[in-house]
Design goal:
By secondary structure, this protein is α+β, with helices and mostly antiparallel strands. The chain has 7 helices and 4 strands; from the N terminus they run E-H-H-E-H-H-E-H-H-E-H. 30% of the residues are buried.
Length: 138
């Protein structure tokens, strides 16, 4: 089976920065062999939140998610590597940090479904859409 070099968007969410975990999270990606192609500290504004989470805007859980994601700075990064989307998703663990496996980023550091430290693209199509929103020049 051949591997494919891909790109993915990763966001280290405001709770990751507030808790001082950005270095640990970045180090895990680097130790895995993934390449950081771009990295930017930003604050997600309301318009970007609505674009980024477009499929969730009408859902009941979205307003508190939007409030959280716009609550402070985050790190946006472009990671690349062989099958990077699948690799990152395995590294970060399931969405709910209370249920994520030990050894994953969420399993080791999160006790929340919303404040779960990291967002990562879940498919090549979402990576393409999200990267265009966050890093339009790449």
């Amino acid at each position: 089976m051949s591997s494919t070099t891909e790109r993915s968007l990763v966001l280290i969410k405001p709770d990751g920065l507030r808790r001082g975990l950005a270095g640990e999270i970045l180090a895990r990606f680097e130790r895995k062999g993934l390449v950081i192609e771009a990295l930017e500290m930003r604050v997600m504004d309301a318009a970007l939140a609505d674009q980024h989470y477009a499929e969730h805007v009408a859902k009941a859980f979205y307003p508190p998610l939007k409030e959280f994601m716009t609550s402070g700075p985050l790190l946006a990064l472009v990671l690349s590597g062989d099958d990077v989307i699948e690799v990152i998703r395995a590294m970060i663990g399931s969405t709910d940090g209370r249920k994520a496996a030990a050894g994953t980023i969420r399993g080791d550091f999160s006790l929340s479904n919303r404040e779960n430290l990291v967002h990562a693209s879940d498919s090549p199509a979402s990576a393409e859409r999200e990267l265009a929103l966050w890093f339009p020049k790449i």
